[in-house]
Amino acid sequence: MSPAEQPPRRADVRRPTLNAVAALAGVGRGTVSRVVNGSPR
Fold first, then answer.
1. To which H or E segment does residue 10 belong?
2. DSSP 9
3. Which pLDDT score is estimated for 3?
4. pLDDT per residue over 17-32, tens digit each?
5. What letter would DSSP give residue 27?
6. How far, in Å, CA of 1 to CA of 9, rounded?
7. Which of the four pLDDT bands, split at 50, 70 and 90, describes residue 5?
8. Where does the chain have alpha helices with state H?
9. What's the average model confidence in pLDDT over 2-31?
10. Cβ distance 25 to 16 under 8 Å?
């Protein structure tokens, strides 16, 4: 595979934080954490 065909490296993409997701969704960090971790609450 040539360099032009390779997908972007994961290190170049920042992962979203719980704080960022919560702020965009208009909910608290705890709510985002429960959803991400699959809590039945």
1. none
2. P
3. 63
4. 999 999 999 999 999 9
5. S
6. 14
7. confident
8. 18-25, 29-36
9. 85
10. no
Backbone dihedral angles phi then psi of residue 4, each to the nearest 5 degrees: -70, -25
The answer to whether 35 and 29 are in contact (CB under 8 A) is no
Nearest to 22 by CA among 8, 11, 3, 36: 36
Give the amino acid at 15. R
* N residues, the chain: 41
- For position 10, what pLDDT does the model report? 67
Q: Give CA–CA dist 27/39, Å, rounded.
A: 16
User: How far apart are the C-alpha atoms of 20 and 29, rounded to whole Å?
Assistant: 9
Sequence-distant (≥ 6) Cβ neighbours of residue 21 within 8 angstroms: 32
